[in-house]
Write a structure and sequence with these properties.
alpha+beta, Nucleotidyltransferase, domain 5, Chitinase A, domain 3, 2 domains, six-stranded mixed β-sheet, five-stranded antiparallel β-sheet, 6 helices, 15% helix, globular
Length: 294
């Protein structure tokens, strides 16, 4: 079996039709035997369905995807697991363990605000570590249509870099580590796939070098945006009646793209969500080891 995952900077890219790269996994007897990054060029929904068919993919794991693309993939005999987010390897392992379900038609309800509930609810304390990870959510312009021009220079800019890292808060608590997952994080330096401070640090590193950096929020996930906190009517969002304050869930926007939120308040009729990244406003520390530059 071969599994394809929409890929950008170690995380699941959220707009299938604009996907420029897939991470392909060869699986035998329920175990991953090999993996590689293949570049598709973001040629559009129909062309991507044909591309995946040519690659021999049996399963696609992705974020947002429209009905037309799903139909094209189904016609090509490819199973679609939509509504996924976070770190790509973790998603594939969850699929192989039978723990990753497709959003499917659960994400097809759109009310006037343009949000819908995907039905994937998690208690905040049980949210997967990938949601905190540098590999899962370091994107600086995920899904943007134009080319990203970095405001820094270095010999690694424009090259594919593989790094190991360990992320900690100022009190020493570790929030993520590629070492724990056993695979370096791969991304194109300067392409906007990483948080700014991490990307800038790697730009001038040498292979084999290990550095420690401290990032202020402006160089990491930014400050919380009050506009990302919104209140909806429970009656207009099927499935939200089961959510409690502190729970994590995924909503979809008007383009069918899923995004994570936290429930911050709930009444008998309304529910309030916070779509700010969980790391927004935090100072972060990273130990970075540059493993390879391609």
């Amino acid at each position: 079996m071969k599994i394809a995952v929409t890929y950008e900077g170690g995380s699941i890219f959220q707009h299938f039709g604009k996907t420029e790269a897939f991470k392909m996994y060869e699986v035998e007897d329920g175990k991953i035997t090999s993996m590689q990054i293949v570049h598709a060029g973001g040629a559009g929904h129909s062309a991507l369905a044909g591309f995946l068919s040519e690659q021999g993919a049996n399963v696609l794991v992705c974020g947002g995807i429209g009905e037309g693309a799903q139909a094209a993939l189904k016609e090509a005999g490819i199973e679609v697991i939509s509504g996924a987010a976070g770190e790509v390897d973790a998603a594939v392992n969850a699929y192989l363990a039978g723990e990753l379900e497709s959003a499917g038609t659960n994400c097809d309800h759109h009310h006037e605000e343009g949000h819908s509930c995907c039905g994937h609810h998690e208690e905040a304390e049980e949210a997967p570590e990938e949601e905190h990870s540098c590999g899962g959510h370091c994107s600086g312009c995920s899904g943007c249509g134009g080319a990203h021009v970095p405001d820094f220079e270095g010999p690694n800019v424009g090259k594919t870099c593989r790094t190991h890292y360990r992320g900690t808060f100022d009190d020493g608590t570790q929030f993520d580590s590629s070492y724990d997952r056993g695979e370096p994080l791969e991304f194109v330096c300067g392409a906007g796939q990483m948080i700014h401070g991490y990307d800038k640090a790697v730009a001038t590193m040498e292979v084999g070098q290990t550095i420690n950096i401290h990032l202020m929020p402006e160089e990491a996930y930014g400050m919380p945006d009050p506009r990302a906190i919104f209140t909806l009517e429970i009656a207009q969002l099927p499935g939200s009646e089961d959510l409690e304050v502190g729970a994590r869930a995924y909503l979809t926007n008007q383009y069918g793209q899923p995004f994570p939120v936290t429930v911050t308040e709930k009444t008998e009729t309304n529910i309030t969500f916070d779509a700010n990244h969980e790391m927004a406003g935090k100072e972060l520390n990273f130990q970075i080891e540059l493993v390879e530059v391609k």
